[in-house]
């Protein structure tokens, strides 16, 4: 089963509140958006969104230029159905982020729990190359991964854990760290997963 088939199966067989990463309110992501003072007209992309409610909250806050990307068409369709008419205000992309070549640039690139599924050096390098290409010169990157104390697998797939120093070092070619926090995510099954959330500034060369 390839990546697309895997995630299609996940979103075809589970409801939003049945997956471990479910958050009714994505507090950490919203807090970073607020702390970074991302303006309402900023171009924001949510990468590996699944059927996350992050887009719902951004719309409620008045953001007007939102793009949502996921490899699973089912996840995207679930989000569209949930939003109803509001979905017309969002740009939707069904794609593997490693293949993204939209020609667009974003002022804020948000990724909660997608990056850590890229576990090999070539995948990580490709992801970061795509990200820096699609982030505007003064743009920000918000990334949430499993911390060094987090799970070693998610949804049956291996993941890469990160400490603050390791994530900062991994991104240092194109991004400089602004702020990092660790947080305990409580899953629908009431287990605890420790996440690392960091914000980065794109380095202008």
Explain the overall architecture.
The longest helix is centred in the middle third of the chain and has 14 residues, at 121-134. This protein has a seven-stranded mixed beta sheet with strand order 3-2-1-4-5-9-8, with helices on both faces. It has a single domain, classed as Rossmann fold (3-Layer(aba) Sandwich), CATH 3.40.50. It is an alpha/beta fold. It is globular and about 45 Å long. The relative contact order is 0.16. It has helices at residues 3-13, 27-35, 54-60, 73-83, 121-134, 164-171; strands at residues 43-47, 65-70, 90-94, 106-112, 135-146, 153-154, 157-158, 175-186, 192-202. The chain is built from six helices and nine strands. A hairpin with a 5-residue loop joins strand 8 (175-186) and strand 9.
Mean of residue pLDDT values: 95
Unreliable stretches? none
Cα shape? globular
Biggest sheet, strands in spatial order?
Answer: 3-2-1-4-5-9-8
Whole-Å distance between the termini? Answer: 40 Å
Number of strand elements: 9
Residue share in helix: 25-40%
What is CATH's topology name? Rossmann fold
Number of domains: 1
Order of helices and strands: HHEHEHEEHEEEHEE
Largest sheet data:
7 strands, mixed
Q: What's a concise summary of this model?
A:
With 205 residues, the chain is of the alpha/beta class.
């Amino acid at each position: 089963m390839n990546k697309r088939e895997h995630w299609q199966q996940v979103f075809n067989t589970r409801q939003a509140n049945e997956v471990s990463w479910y958050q009714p309110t994505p507090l950490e992501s919203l807090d970073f958006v607020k702390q970074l003072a991302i303006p309402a007209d900023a171009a924001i992309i949510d990468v590996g969104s699944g059927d996350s409610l992050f887009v719902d909250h951004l719309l409620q806050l008045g953001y007007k230029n939102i793009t949502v990307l996921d490899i699973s068409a089912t996840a995207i369709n679930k989000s569209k159905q949930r939003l109803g008419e509001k979905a017309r205000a969002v740009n939707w992309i069904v794609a593997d982020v490693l293949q993204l070549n939209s020609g667009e640039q974003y002022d804020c690139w948000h990724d909660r729990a997608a990056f850590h599924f890229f576990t090999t050096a070539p995948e990580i390098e490709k992801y970061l190359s795509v990200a820096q290409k699609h982030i505007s010169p003064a743009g920000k990157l918000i990334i949430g991964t499993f911390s060094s104390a987090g799970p070693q697998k998610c949804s049956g797939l291996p993941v890469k854990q990160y400490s603050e120093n390791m994530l900062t070092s991994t991104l240092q070619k194109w991004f400089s760290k602004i702020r990092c926090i660790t947080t305990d995510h409580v899953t629908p099954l009431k287990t605890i997963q420790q996440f690392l959330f960091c914000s980065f500034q794109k380095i202008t060369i």
